[in-house]
Amino acid sequence: MAVEALGLGKNYGAVRAVDDLSFTLEPGSVTGFLGPNGAGKSTTMRLMLGLDSGDGQTLWDGGRLSERVPVTRTVGAHLDARFFHPSRTARNHLRMLATEASVPTSRVDDVLRLVGLAEVADKRPSGFSLGMAQRLGLAGAILAEPDVLLLDEPANGLDPQSIQWLRDFLRAYAAQGKVVFVSSHLLSEMQQMAEHLVVIAKGRLIADESLDSFVARSTRNDVLVRVSDPAALAAALAAEGLTAVPEGEDGLAVATSDTDRIGEAAFRAGLSVRELTRRTASLEEAFLELTTGEQQFQTGGGAA
Ligand SMILES: Nc1ncnc2c1ncn2[C@@H]1O[C@H](COP(=O)(O)OP(=O)(O)OP(=O)(O)O)[C@@H](O)[C@H]1O
Fold first, then answer.
1. 226 with 195, same domain?
2. Domain tally for the chain?
3. Which intervals hold domain ABC transporter (predicted)?
4. pLDDT of residue 220
């Protein structure tokens, strides 16, 4: 099934948290939902699920969520890492959700195993680390094997090994033909996890495209060429309209991703090529460049 968000909008007093946001989520790959802190990601997810009222609508396989029975088979969501009953064990928490969703309780132990919580099934989530709480939230979201997973910052609090696990898990889930929509403000994690991106800033859509094509739009994609006579190659490339900036002893950074063209120019000029490397911008570099003028990501220290 595809999910279409159409003209979503929400005001909080004078703040326009989400502004005329439309995008489509396709099944089969993980879609990352990216934006700086406060960009409107959580609000958008709540609007999609009908947990907040606002403008626009979301269509689930062409229809409203309320028309899909049971809803739990259509969408599983994990929005708040700490939203658990304080005195119920992990297993009992999931059993309660299973009953509400008309899922056989035998599925609870399967899901606990899937997310790696089998050993702490009889412990209360109040004592869980953030990473364990995230796993429990994910367990709840996949309980009814929904067609769509909506996860808000599921990688928060996970160690690098767990992030790797989450990435493999979500990719495998999507590969079954499911929609997986995952928000994060951490770009390096998203680069690992998503194939498609919906990017917002200040509540507005900035990009809805594959991660590769988003990154390819950055001017930081270039080619490093090391050559016997860099000045001669720079002149040859300039004649072809390519800008080359000296780098290191015998190198040039050329503003293109076309290595063939550089190799051929060097050959025609009778120069020997020592290295020819295509360099790709990181998602973080591409994001910061493509959202200039919009909110910037907060760095680790400093602002809260
Ligand atoms: N309940 C609320 N009352 C008032 N303002 C709100 C409320 N919830 C969100 N906002 C504001 O709406 C904007 C979008 O917030 P939202 O939490 O959706 O962003 P976000 O992208 O999920 O951010 P984060 O990555 O920090 O979770 C922000 O300016 C925020 O301050």
1. no
2. 2
3. 3-227
4. 79
Are 212 and 231 members of one domain?
Answer: no
pLDDT means over runs of 10, the chain (304 residues):
96 94 96 91 96 95 90 92 77 90 90 92 86 90 95 89 90 96 87 92 92 84 94 95 94 92 96 94 82 50 36
Closest-CA residue, ligand 1 atom 16, reads 40
Same domain, 205 and 234: no
For residues 154 and 250, membership in a common domain is answered with no
Q: What is the CATH number of the domain that holds 19?
A: 3.40.50.300
Where in the sequence is the domain holding 230, given as residue range(s)? 222-279
ipTM comes to 0.94
| The predicted structure's pLDDT at residue 299 | 42
The answer to whether position 296 is within a domain reads: no
Name residues contacting ligand 1 (CB within 6 A): 12, 15, 17, 35, 37-43, 185
Same domain, 34 and 107: yes
pLDDT at 73: 92
Inside any domain, residue 64:
yes
Distance 211 CA to ligand 1 centre (A): 25
Residue 279: name the closest of 204, 210, 195, 220 by CA.
220
Query: Is residue 300 in some structural domain?
Result: no
Pocket perturbation via mutation, ligand 1, pick of 10, 11, 15 by most ligand atoms within 8 A of CB:
15
**CA of 39, closest atom in ligand 1:** 21
* Cα-to-centroid distance, 184 and ligand 1 (Å): 14
Q: How many A from CA of 231 to the centre of ligand 1? A: 52
